[in-house]
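This part of the workshop introduces the protein records we will be handling. Getting from the letters to the C-alpha cells is the skill we practise here. An example says more than a description, so a record of this kind follows:
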Amino acid sequence: MKIECLTVVFVDIEGYTSKTNDQSRGANERLLGRFAALVKPLVRAFNGRIVKGMGDAYLVVFKSPTDALLCAMAVQDLLAERSPQLPKHERFRLRFAASAGEVRVEHNDVFGEAVNIASRIEALASGGEIYFSEAVYLMMNRSEVPFLDAGRHKLKGIHEQVRLYRIPKLSEVGAYKLAPPVEAKDGSAEPELLPFGGLALKRVHSRVTEGSVAKDGSFYLLGALAEVHYTSGSKSALLARRSWPHKILAPFYYLSLFAMGVAAIPFHGGTYRGLYSRFRKGLRLFKGSRSYRFKVITNMLLLTFVLGGTAVGWRQYVLAKQAEQQAETLKILVQQKEKAAAQARAREVAVQKALNKEKKKFHFPW
C-alpha cells in the first residue's frame, strides 16, 4: 500500500443508461470506442493516468490539479469540435468532477475521501460542465484556469458541506482574462466556437505537433504512441515486482512491446480518420471563406516559387559538379598523354645511345 497526494477526476457520459436502451450492441460499442479515443490521448498528453474504466466512465488521477482541469477543458473542446461531424443520434456530452487529497494506492487502484468526494460531485454536474472541490481550487494555478464559485453543497456520505467551483464556459463570461482570444482558422479575429475557448486544446496541439497544421492526424499518433508506452510500461512493471529473473527480463519485454506498438501505429485507423476530417474541414473553409482561399493560394504560389527555385539551383549545382568531374577527367587524360610521350622520348634516347655505342665498336682509324 502507498499513500499519495493526487487529483482524482471522474468523467462519464451524460444519460448513458437512456442511450443504451435505444442502441444496438454495435452502436454502443462505437460510442464507447469514440469516448475512449477522445479521453485517453488527452489524459496522456497532460501526464495523467487512467486508473480504471467503468463502462461509460473513467477514473483518472493527476499529480497536478492544474493539468487535471486543463485536460477536462481540452476534452470538452475537442468533443465540441468533433460532434458536428457525427449524426445527431450518435452525439454525446461529458461531465467532469475533480477533487484532491491523500489517497491509498493499492493494486493499481485508488481509495480515499478524495475519490468519494469526486464521485459525489459528478452527480451534481450536468453534461458539458466541469466541477471541482475547494481542495483543487486551493492547489491549482488560478492564473491558468478560469473558475466560478458554485457555493457550498451537502454531499452524500460527507459530514461537512463542501464548497464547489466550476469552470465557466466562454459564452457565460464573454472572454477569459487568462489569454488573448484564439484566432479563427479562416484568419479572422473572431474566437473559435468552442465551449472553453480552445485554451487547453491549443496547448495540446502545440505540444503534439510543434506548430504543424495537421493537428488531428499527429494527435491520433501521439495518443496511440502514449497508449503503447503506458501498456508496455505497466506490463513490464508487473514483471519487475516479481523475482530477480523477471526483473532482468522486464526491460527487454517493455522494449519488445513498445517496438511492436510503434510498428502498428501507421495502421491505426484514427490517424487516417483524423487526417481525412481535417482535409474535409479545410475544403469547406476553402469554399466558404475568401480570406482563407486567398491565404491558401498565396502560400501555394510561394511554395511553388520556392520549390522551383530550389529545383533550378539544384540542377545548376549538378551541372557544375558534372563539369568539374569532366574537367578533372580531361586533366588526368592530358597528364597520362604527357607521361606516355615522355616515356617514348626516353626510349628513343636510350635506343640512340645504344646505336652510338655499337658504332664506336666498329670504328676503324684508317
The radius of gyration is 36 Å. The chain has three domains: 2-210, 212-288, 292-330. Residues 290-361 form the longest helix (72 residues).
